[in-house]
Amino acid sequence: MNKVFLIGRLTRDPELRYTSSNIAVATFSLAVNRNFTNNSGERDADFINIVVWRKQAENVKNYLSQGSQVAIDGRIQSRSYDGEDGKKRYITEVIADNVEFLGTKKSNQGGSNASSASTNQEVTPYDFPDAKPETTDVDNNPFADFGDSVEISDDELPF
Q1: What is the pLDDT of residues 40-52, one digit of tens each?
Q2: Which fold has domain 4-129?
Q3: DSSP class of residue 39?
Q4: pLDDT of residue 2 exceeding 70
Q5: Does residue 21 come out as left (phi exceeding 0), alpha (psi in the -120 to 50 range) or beta?
Q6: Tens digits of residue pLDDT in 89-138
Q7: Which residues are CB-contacts of 92 (< 8 A; sequence separation ≥ 6)?
Q8: How do the domains of the chain map onto residue ranges?
Q9: CB 92 within 8 A of CB 76
Q10: β-pair partners for 70
Q11: How far is CA 26 from CA 52, 99, 136, in A?
């Protein structure tokens, strides 16, 4: 099975092109934070190339820009080509089946959400900066009655 789910921010504005058969294709790079910290205590990010086709490509170009947050589901694809120097180059990218607009850089700073005109948009707390977040009772442990506790040491982690 080849399935990828990513949430991240665009590192640049999407580029929109059309094939010779007039099919829209957009490309952009997505910064995705790793779920662990490095030796300095900072989170590194991976920069992943994304390709989007057809109407969704046009929507991406029209409503997203650098800093926009999106959720992607798709598949990994690898391809190769011969560079100008004659050497073979390899590219790995994610072909997006679905792009969910989660917010824009402006909306996270309290501005308007530029992706509000898109279809299939998910509403996030960033769309309503004055709304109060839900609170959680951290003193109430919902797993208290599940039996013995499980302890995991950091020494057992593979990274």
Answers
A1: 888 889 999 999 9
A2: OB fold (Dihydrolipoamide Acetyltransferase, E2P) (2.40.50)
A3: T
A4: yes
A5: alpha
A6: 999 999 999 999 997 665 544 444 443 333 344 444 444 444 444 444 55
A7: 49, 76, 77, 78
A8: 4-129
A9: yes
A10: 8, 101
A11: 5, 12, 40
